[in-house]
């Protein structure tokens, strides 16, 4: 019996202590996503302070809206004076409506002509994804008489050169090849009345600090080169993808879990996971392969932004100067586009059990009122245990007692008589699995049997998980999103997004 408890943000723990979720959502059949704007606000403050207190270079933060398109989080970005990164025309329209001015908006990713035209009209910064996009920007400006103001662009680099160990980067479908940059420079020079090259952009999914440092070095090199040929380049944008990690309360429990899983694999025993799954671990010459990747996916508590950026920015640019110092000396603004890291722990998602059946070895199969796309579990399957609330606790609980600490019955702390339960979604697909690992539950009244109406709460779903793949393929009830705020020390307010 193995438990891997999720880390729970203190604000969410406080909310859970003071809120009777069972009665609040008793009549609700939809997948429920609760969003906590105060947590995003805390992240913004942390990011700002880290750069203000530790580095002299100028920095600018763009919230990558794709991590969660809810107006709730966009409003937080607006109110906290950061910038925003949009990746579609509708995202752009949405942030304009909420009140962002073009000067605080960057447009990234592949773009349609109408997206480009709107971005040009609103004077947004455009991260140019290809030579063809650059040519399209130039011709849209000509065609629509938009040449009276200069459009600021970044060139997104696809294949930065790195000299770190013997790592070779995988090809990216995004951005412009280094070898094609000279062609871009000529095009921009020929159209210097209407296009202004502001700098460079690299967003790649590799999270390693050493590689992020290499990417920044590549962009500084390009800034130096372009200044020599006459451009006034002042921006480098390192994108996002800093640490899309699962947060566990105690890393040792997770390591123990992996050890047991490895031993089971080596001894040809059942993994306990659904269909004997081993999370891509494999056995080659009796050695377990793939453990390192699984280990790296999980972090104890919250991700440490300071140590991450310290290591990157204190890397040497050359033998004389660090990255942070050269950025300062050359007066280059370092831009970041965090999505995940501004929304870490900013949301939880609630599923209810709609059907239960007994399965082998005293275990249960529970189907929930959500499917795996409502919490993007095919993309970001939870490796940590969700919170379980037994429906029989509705009248017993004292969650409204502000002095209570989170009731232990809420967190899964399996005893030997706990029940094992597999969690599935509400579609007809065999693959609609919410978690491959079983969870162990205890409840006061039902002999530890799961029951219809019991709640399963997935943590850390604010970024991507609650939106990115959200779908109701069988016309099930659609997801509902709620803003949760701490209105005073004793009370939390829950408002449905449409009501805001
Ligand atoms: C261009 C760009 N910037 C920023 C991000 C945000 O990345 P993350 O949420 O991992 O920080 C993405 C994510 O896909 C992206 O494509």
Give a nutshell description of this structure.
With 500 residues, the chain is of the alpha/beta class. Helix content is 30%, strand content 21%. The protein has 3 domains: 10-35 and 347-499, Lyase, Ornithine Decarboxylase, Chain A, domain 1 (Beta Barrel), CATH 2.40.37.10; 38-243 and 304-343, TIM Barrel; 250-296.
Architecture blueprint of SSEs:
Elements: H1 10-18, H2 21-24, E1 32-35, H3 37-54, E2 58-64, H4 71-79, E3 83-86, H5 89-98, E4 105-107, H6 113-121, E5 125-128, H7 131-143, E6 151-156, H8 181-190, E7 195-201, H9 209-228, E8 235-237, E9 246-248, H10 251-266, E10 282-284, E11 287-289, H11 291-296, E12 298-300, H12 305-313, H13 323-329, E13 333-336, H14 340-343, E14 347-358, E15 363-368, H15 377-380, E16 387-389, E17 419-424, E18 439-441, E19 455-458, E20 480-488, E21 491-496
Parallel strand pairs: 1-20, 2-3, 2-13, 3-4, 4-5, 5-6, 6-7, 7-8, 8-13, 9-12, 15-17
Antiparallel strand pairs: 1-14, 10-11, 14-15, 14-19, 16-19, 17-18, 20-21
Bound molecules: pyridoxal-5'-phosphate.
Question: Can you walk through the features of this model?
Answer:
- With 500 residues, the chain is an alpha/beta fold.
- The chain folds into three domains: 10-35 and 347-499, Lyase, Ornithine Decarboxylase, Chain A, domain 1 (Beta Barrel), CATH 2.40.37; 38-243 and 304-343, Alanine racemase (TIM Barrel); 250-296.
- Helix content is 30%, strand content 21%.
- It contains 15 helices and 21 strands.
- The chain has helices at 10-18, 21-24, 37-54, 71-79, 89-98, 113-121, 131-143, 181-190, 209-228, 251-266, 291-296, 305-313, 323-329, 340-343, 377-380, and strands spanning 32-35, 58-64, 83-86, 105-107, 125-128, 151-156, 195-201, 235-237, 246-248, 282-284, 287-289, 298-300, 333-336, 347-358, 363-368, 387-389, 419-424, 439-441, 455-458, 480-488, 491-496.
- The strands form four sheets. Strands 1, 14, 15, 16, 17, 18, 19, 20 and 21 form a nine-stranded mixed sheet that branches.
- Strand 4 (105-107), helix 6 (113-121) and strand 5 form a beta-alpha-beta unit.
- The protein starts with 9 loop residues before the first helix and ends with a strand.
- Mean pLDDT is 92; it is low at 396-413.
- It binds pyridoxal-5'-phosphate (PLP).
- Residues 64, 66-67, 85, 108, 203, 239-242, 244, 337-341 line the site of pyridoxal-5'-phosphate.
């Amino acid at each position: 019996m193995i438990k891997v408890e999720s880390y729970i943000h203190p604000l969410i723990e406080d909310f859970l202590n003071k809120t009777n979720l069972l009665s609040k959502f008793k009549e609700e059949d939809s997948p429920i996503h609760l969003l906590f704007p105060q947590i995003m606000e805390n992240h913004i403050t942390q990011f700002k302070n880290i750069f203000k207190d530790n580095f002299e270079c100028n920095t600018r933060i763009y919230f990558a809206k794709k991590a969660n398109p809810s107006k709730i989080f966009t409003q937080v970005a607006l109110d906290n004076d950061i910038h925003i990164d949009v990746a579609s025309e509708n995202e752009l329209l949405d942030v304009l409506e909420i009140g962002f001015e073009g000067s605080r908006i960057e447009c990234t990713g592949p773009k349609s002509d109408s997206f480009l035209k709107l971005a040009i009209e609103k004077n947004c910064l455009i991260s140019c994804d290809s030579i063809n996009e650059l040519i399209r920007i130039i011709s849209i400006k000509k065609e629509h008489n938009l040449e009276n103001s200069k459009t600021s662009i970044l060139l997104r680099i696809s294949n930065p050169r790195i000299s770190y160990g013997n790592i070779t980067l995988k090809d990216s479908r995004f951005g412009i090849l280094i070898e094609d940059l000279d062609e871009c420079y000529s095009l921009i020079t020929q159209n210097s009345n209407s296009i202004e090259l502001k700098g460079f952009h690299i967003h790649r999914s590799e999270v390693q600090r050493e590689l992020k440092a290499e990417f920044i070095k590549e962009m500084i090199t390009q800034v130096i080169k372009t200044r020599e040929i006459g451009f006034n380049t002042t921006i480098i944008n390192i994108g996002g993808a800093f640490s899309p990690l699962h947060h566990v309360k105690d890393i040792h429990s997770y390591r123990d879990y992996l050890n047991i899983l490895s031993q089971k694999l080596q001894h040809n025993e059942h993994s306990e996971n659904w269909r004997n799954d081993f999370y891509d671990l494999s056995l080659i010459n009796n050695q377990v392969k793939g453990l390192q990747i699984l280990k790296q996916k999980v972090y104890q508590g919250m991700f440490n932004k300071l140590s991450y950026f310290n290591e990157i920015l204190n890397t040497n640019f050359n033998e004389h100067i660090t990255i942070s110092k050269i950025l300062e000396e050359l007066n280059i603004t370092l831009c970041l586009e965090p999505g995940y890291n501004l929304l870490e722990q900013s949301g939880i998602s609630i599923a209810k059990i709609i059907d239960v059946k007994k399965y082998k070895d005293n275990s249960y199969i529970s189907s929930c009122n959500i499917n795996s796309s409502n919490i993007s579990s095919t993309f970001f399957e939870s490796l940590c245990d969700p919170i379980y609330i037994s429906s029989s606790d509705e009248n017993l609980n004292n969650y409204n007692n502000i002095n209570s600490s989170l009731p232990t019955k809420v967190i899964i702390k399996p005893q030997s008589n706990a029940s094992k339960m597999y969690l599935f979604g509400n579609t007809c697909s065999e693959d609609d699995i919410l978690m491959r690992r079983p969870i162990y539950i205890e409840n006061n009244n039902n002999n530890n049997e799961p029951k219809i109406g019991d709640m399963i709460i997935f943590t850390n779903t604010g970024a991507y998980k609650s939106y990115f793949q959200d779908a109701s393929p069988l016309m099930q009830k659609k997801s509902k999103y709620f803003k949760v705020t701490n209105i005073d020390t004793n009370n939390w307010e829950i408002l449905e997004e449409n009501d805001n």
